[in-house]
């Protein structure tokens, strides 16, 4: 399992620097209503060839975190602190020219809405070739040939013909494949996939996830897979980071979190998922309430207004003190390990089957 450090303070050195290291990342937006703390003290590591799944509801800080890694936030309205190191290079505070050399080359992103991300005015082939020509100095002819190669790799039929098509001439699944081709055209060492299977049917979802796994084996890329669906990462990710209200609340390997989740929020995510083995009339267990406002988050644990446990079970700490996330396999929760294990075994595990 990839070592994932604590979100509280600077983690202890692990003996060798990880490929991607994020430490105490904080991202704040200035709005007319006040300061939005979109990411509030997040840390994690990612090694080459590994996949980290980041899961959580909309507004939990997943995409904001990865846009900060890529340096895509508007500096006029965004304040970013903490440290982001990619292969030993500091990205936080780096000049735009430095980031431009890295984006699309050493690091790339697959956006969740391919129809919006792809320009309707240019052919798919031109859009795939553009970053390749920019970063390698290749000619237009070489760029076109590279685009055809990448369309072939991602499974687009008749790539020598479809290279001249426009995005609207592609189906949803084909557009997503084209986005993956564009992201991988320069063989990036870090690939960020932001909800890559959103709005795709189940069959196409499986094809896209299998494609990511195959291409990772070929290119050796480190992948961050952002999703709100734990089922999506079950067969793809090595480790999981569960986020809520801008903070990490649980981390561990995929197997550990899916079979022995330790945080009440993770229990809620798992309990609200339908299962193929369940009866069609079986009730689901949605998480009550809504995610908190990041303008004015609740005191103590941000999840406490929606938690299954009354605050007094943890001695009142839930509403008074924000829980830390210790090193290693851990959950940021004031409940004792015994309390959580008992509740999970008696109440949650029967729901999950």
From TrEMBL:
InterPro entries: AAA+_ATPase (IPR003593), ABC_Ni/Peptide_Import (IPR050388), ABC_transporter-like_ATP-bd (IPR003439), ABC_transporter-like_CS (IPR017871), Oligopep_ABC_C (IPR013563), P-loop_NTPase (IPR027417). Residues 22-270 form the ABC transporter domain. Belongs to the ABC transporter superfamily. It comes from Streptomyces ramulosus. GO terms for molecular function: ATP binding. The lineage of its organism: Bacteria, Bacillati, Actinomycetota, Actinomycetes, Kitasatosporales. It is found in: Cell membrane. It holds the Pfam family ABC_tran. This is ABC transporter ATP-binding protein. It is a peripheral membrane protein. Keywords: ATP-binding, Cell membrane, Membrane, Nucleotide-binding, Transport.
